Give the backbone structure.
Amino acid sequence: MKISFAQGVAMAISESLAADSRLLLIGNGFVGLNMEARALLEPALREFADRILVAPVSELALAGAGIGAAMAGQRAAVDLSTGSFIFQAFAQVVNEAANVHYMSGGQTTAPVTFCSLAGMRSAGAAQHSHRIQAMLGQVPGLQVLVPGGADDAYHMLKWALLQSQNPTVFISHALLLGETGELTPGAPMLPVGKARIRREGRDLSIIASSITVPRALEAAQSLERDHGFSVEVVDLRSIAPLDRDTVLKSVAKTGRAVIADECHRSFGVAAEIAATLAEEGLAYLKAPVCRVAVPDVPVPFSPPLEAELTVTADKIVAGALKVLNAGSTMRRPV
Amino acid sequence: MTDLALDKLYGFYEQLWRIRLFEGHVQRLAAKGEVPGFPHLSTGQEAVAVGVCAHLAANDYVFSSHRAHGHVLAKGSDPYATFAEIIGRQDGLCRGRGGSMHLVDAANGVMGATGVVAGNLSLAAGAAWAAQALGDGRIAVVFFGDGATGAGVFHETLNLASLWQLPLLFVCENNGYAEFTSREEHSKVAKVSAFAAPYHLPAETIDGNDVLVVNAAAAAAVRSIRSGAGPRLLECMTYRMAGHYVGDAQRYRSKEELAAMKEKDPIDRLRAHLTQRGEPAAELEAIEKRVASEVQAAVERARQAARPDPATVLDYVYSQPLSTTAEA
Ligand SMILES: Cc1ncc(C[n+]2csc(CCOP(=O)(O)OP(=O)(O)O)c2C)c(N)n1
Ligand SMILES: [Mg+2]
């Protein structure tokens, strides 16, 4: 069946509320302004109203309450709405949730899921456009899920809500909410921690996550159609855990890599992938890797400025052509 | 309160209309897809901005929320540059970088709106501290919504302001909602002014839809703050006649509630007051007409203004170039 990303989120929440009476929702946004998904979610919000807490604008305390409830044996999902607002909750997410298990020497766990609607959403300007995954990737103890399709949104959120024992940040993207994908009811999910080959190819690997997945797929199509290249697209699905093996395997096959990432260029997800390729995959590379990421500037309000920064399919194509047209062997400096 | 000079009353009337009409254009053009993002209108809440800013000098500091258009205009910023910012043009207050939720007009004391609820309450405390340290007679004012009281930093800032006896006026626009959640659903504390008492911070709850009431209360508060008597809080009870943002379907408000808001309209109330005083309707209509054409001209000019050049996207990240080597 065809579902949208937002519907996947709504279904995962509804089904999880029904499946586990310990699950508590703090806040009730979760699907942004997507009205179809809201309609899907509403029956569950009504049915399980006693486990849904109306949230004041108190991100710090809400996140902490979710952590505490989880430590005390419940399972909690905290809606932190726009990704940038996780900063109001950072002290609890980063310095409490992530450390609870470690600092207690394994005595306590916090199976809480923080839901964030992050990303460059079109005119969100600097304060509503953050991509938070790279920052969170710097926090051992947190799982960071960045699904790039409706199927994964459904499966991975449901896994986080029902099965994960670790604190998780589930990152949706405002512009992914309407993206549709095929979901086979009852089909097993690819485990969290495995990247997904969204498209197979021989000449180049595009490594993508979250919003850059559909854009990478579009780029791959046009590279094939307009330039005759066979392009593989690797969807990372999660930043922590990070499936380095699948990335390396893909690049071992293609010999070339473009990393499409909506984080800032410096210290971003793309930087981590590039470092992995430099450390463990140099022998496979026929050309230097290319990061197609967002320049190190806050996201501006005005659309032509924002467009200049956006990681579009066209920019991925341009990065790919650079890599594809680079010399067939990497030269060592003499 | 009623002994205000007529020109003052006409001045209020004009300012209320300026904001109302300005935001009417924002709404109209948003519907046509000309306004990027989700602007938040202050329609129905204009009396707070006008009544408070009437007591501020250009160099007094104003910090504002995501619902900032009214504050910025009432502080005296140029409607053209303000509108140009809201539609993302190079001539905008922030050269198109900020937008509706991040209006800044530093030369005019508008230190910044913020898209983060409660994001700049403590910044206002810092500015107030600076004003006090410099002894230049300025004060700082921070406008925020009732929703912001859910944030810890609101309470922390009340404490700081009280502890440091800052020249700071907290102005809460209590419109009864934080987004789609009513005040009753997000707090057991009905009055925001009640939060001030434990910090020994004088506070009052007033009718924020009567510009004369706001004007009188703000006059007293500002006078006291300027005299060095420390911070104050004004809770202005008001009502947002528009949705939370332009496009909000407003399913959370009943028809009765929406119908009742017409009586709360601050413009109607000031007009009724003036009419009662026997002021001629023709005078008021003349003001409306003049403001309408002034605002219309600013909006049309802004619509013609150039968009920022994408080549400049890396500008303004740092105020001093980042340098990897120390320069002599
Ligand atoms: C830290 C943070 N959390 C959540 C939001 C989303 N948000 C935008 S406006 C708003 C409600 C604010 O209510 P209030 O302070 O009463 O202002 P009003 O909109 O009523 O003027 C919320 C929750 C935000 N902008 N910032
Ligand atoms: Mg409010």
